[in-house]
Each structure stands twice: as C-alpha cells, then as structure tokens.
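Methods: holo model generation. Sequences were used as deposited, without trimming of termini or removal of tags, and paired with ligand SMILES retrieved from the corresponding compound records. Each pair was processed once, and we did not select among multiple samples. The sequence and flavin-adenine dinucleotide SMILES for this entry were:
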Amino acid sequence: MTSVIDLAVVRELRDIVGPAGCREDPADLEPFLTESRRLYRGVADLVLMPATTEEAAAIIGLCSRHGIAVVPQGGNTGLVGGAVARSTPEAPEIILSARRMADIRELDPDNYTITAEAGCVLADLQSAAAEADRFFPLSLASEGSCMLGGNLSTNAGGTNVLRFGTARELVLGLEVVLPDGRVFDGLRSLRKDNAGFDLKQLFIGAEGTLGFITAATCKLYPRPRGVATAVVALPDAAAAIALHSRARLALGDELIAFELMSRQALEFVLAYLPAAREPLARPAPWYLLLEIATARDQAGTEEELEDFLGDCLESGLVLDGVAARSEAQREAFWLLRHSISDAQKGGGASIKNDISVPVSRVAEFLGRATQQVTELVPGVRVVAFGHVGDGNIHFNLTQPPGMEAAAFVDLWDSLTGEVNAIAVDLGGSFSAEHGIGLLKVRELRRFRSGVELDLMRAIKQQLDPAGIMNPGKILGD
Ligand SMILES: Cc1cc2nc3c(=O)[nH]c(=O)nc-3n(C[C@H](O)[C@H](O)[C@H](O)COP(=O)(O)OP(=O)(O)OC[C@H]3O[C@@H](n4cnc5c(N)ncnc54)[C@H](O)[C@@H]3O)c2cc1C
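and the model returned the structure below.
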C-alpha cells in the first residue's frame, strides 16, 4: 500500500465493506485502472465495492470528512476517461465500484417500471424486463458489461434513442449518495410529479461529479411482438436524411433504430472480423441499418418493413436493400454495425469523434468534415458511422497507410478540434453521447459559453464544496 491515506482511515473504510468489498492487491486493482480506449492509466491503491446504499453512504461520508476523493465506477466501459482515478500523494483517490450493488429491487409490470441498483449490468436489466413481457429500450454495444449507474451518469444514448430518448428520458426516480454522505432518496415511480425542481436530472449525465448513484426507477415499455431489421445501400449521405424523414412518416413510432455506416467502416469490419459478410451484392458508398418494432406479430412486422423497402427501391431513394429473414440474420446485420470501432483497430491508429448536429445537417457536416481532415492529413481514412436518426455521427479517423501510428495520434487535438468546430458551427455538439470525462474538458471550455460554465461550476460548488466527487472530470477542477 503506497497510499497516503491514513492507515486508520483505510481500516475504517475496509471495515465498512468487509473483505468481499475491498481490493488492494495490484493484480486485483488492474481491471479498475485500465480503461477501454487505453488513453489513460488509472492510479489508485484502493477499490471499495459497497453492497448497499448504507455502505456507500458510510464510505463517502468518511471520505468527505478526511478529504479523500471518490471516483465512481460502473462497468468501466466509458470512452472519455470519466472513471479513471488519478491518485497523487497530495490528493489520494479511491475507486467506488457499484458492481456489488446489482439487485433488481422491484419490477412493477402494471406501472411499467423497474427499480434496479446501480451495478446492474444493462443486459441483465433488459432480460429482467423481457421475462416480465416488458421492454427496457436502452441498448448499447457495451450492454454486456456497462451498468445502470454508469449509463445514467453518462446519460447514455445508443441505438434506440430515436424512439425512446437517451437514458435521461427513461428515469422516473433516483437514489443518490451526496458528496457529504447524505442520501437523496428520490426513488419515486411517478410519471407525473411536478413538486419543485426535478433534482434527479442534476445527477444524470453528471459523470459522478455530484454524487454516487445507488439505484434508479426506470420506465418500461410493452415488449414488441415483432421486430424487423434491414440493411439498405445509399448513393450518398443526403439520401440517408431523405430516407429518415420518409421512414418516420411511413413507420411512425415503430421505427426504433436508424444507423448509418460508411463503406470504409464496413470495409474494416469485412477485413478484420472473420464472421462478417457483405450484406448486399454490390458495394455502395453508404449503408443504413434500420429496425422497426411493433405490436403486430413477426410476419406482419416483416411484411411492413418489406413494403416500405419496396417503395423506397421503386422510387430510387435506395440503391438496394435486404431484410433479415431470421434472428441469426438480424444478429449478423447488427454485428456489422457494432463491430466497427473494434475492426477499425485493424487499420492502425485511430482518432475518435462523437459529434451531433441537427439531423437535417448531417450530410453537410459529413461533406465539410471529410474535406477538412483530408486536406490536413492526405490519405486519412474516414470511418463515419452512427446514430444518424439522432444526428449523432462517430466521425472516426484511421491513419493513412504507412504513416507512423504515434505521429497520427499526435494530431488528435488538432483533428478533433477541427471536426468539433464544424459540428458546433452547424448548431451541433462536440460530445453527443460519450460525455466529457477527462478527454473533452478543453473542448467544453472552448465551446460552451461563460454563462453555461458558471452555472455548472455553481451547481458543483453547492453540492460538493470540497470537490471530492470525481475531481478533474467535466469542469477540469
Ligand atoms: C463497444 C462500446 C460501445 C459503446 N457504445 C455506446 C453508445 O452507443 N452510446 C453511449 O452513450 N455510450 C456508448 N459507449 C460508452 C459506455 O459504454 C457508456 O458511456 C456507458 O453508459 C458507461 O457505463 P459504465 O457502467 O461502463 O460506466 P463507467 O465507464 O464505469 O463510468 C462512466 C462515468 O460514469 C461515472 N459513474 C459510473 N457509475 C456511477 C455511479 N453509480 N454513480 C455516479 N457516477 C457513476 C464514472 O465516474 C464515469 O464518469 C460504448 C462503449 C463501448 C466500449
């Protein structure tokens, strides 16, 4: 133990959780210190895993009294370094992991709600809802390991935002340990509750800087009876926007996913993922994966999507299209979409962007940003994909073949700066769904107004005057 935390305090912290809730050996700490993009390396001597809200409150209360910083962590799948501890001898930090708080406290089918603890893995939450003939719509490629507390703290988006909104819109109630160790019990399961400020919203998307979420009550929806999925080929990005408008008119709220993939993105998947197959006979510049979910049976749902695709083909809006004929084929389509980030690694070093613009301006963004990065780095490969129905594009870049990987990564700030500036110029955001963490602190200061930053600082100061909750994240101080 190299920590400068007083040993008596360490003993007290250990006693709160017992041996099952404490990690101190370097090998055991490793998974908590390595983050998914390996952009940061965590430093901490102590990981505490409370099993109850009371234990979490006792830990944070004790840390508050001793000026020890607390870094909340869920599944550690975040992409901006938000869950990274940065202990120094002067400023020790402990990691507070939610993973032992994984109970589903209540599922109320008639109220269409589920109350679950922060450490509940997203896929388990989805399964629990499905078993009760209900649907929990939050869905991300990391759903096998990310956790509810992390999802809410990052206001996660994913593939079904188009119809159901981001994580924020799925929450009815929240339980949070505040930075002074008190518990805010806002675990109400009401759809109507206009009693003053909506306090829970403060903690959603706060990336652990205002408190530690311990549980939430979330909305459930009827489980769809039929789900149909298709991949279509498009001549250009503008066609995706036209198709989006048309699909929403024709399919209404049944349209739940509308995902864009560039040919370059698909080529990386086909090259580096052995299981991947070309979805269509001929290559095309752009592809869309769209999915509908209905209360009709499976055959009726498939028929509806096929009719829609037929109309689009006839009118020339799409070049080609194929609807999944089985669950295996549906999964194969989603595999193409979900594997892009991983497959991109095969092409060498990459630089990632997570921007959003109004849906109507996506094609303009793609044109301008592609031209800009190509001028700056000739030969750079643009791997654009994302939740185009939400105006959210992951405008990722892969190094030109033959370039030094390190030299390319050195361009991270300048290239993301250019791309973000174009998005903001089009009325967009430099962080659509991944948050700020450590990675985008500078961008937040650059692109958000003084008034917005002042308001954020005032809220932080009010709730956490000693600055013990996840220091350095979002505001950078
Ligand atoms: C392959 C892959 C695909 C992804 N796809 C998407 C996507 O489509 N959409 C999307 O939005 N994100 C996506 N992500 C990012 C990530 O999965 C999400 O941000 C997820 O919501 C993070 O959950 P987590 O439990 O892993 O949180 P962590 O990574 O552990 O933490 C994330 C942040 O939340 C804070 N936090 C965690 N738990 C708590 C808590 N209980 N109380 C307070 N603060 C807490 C942490 O301090 C940190 O700031 C993806 C990641 C990967 C690896």
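The mean pLDDT is 96.
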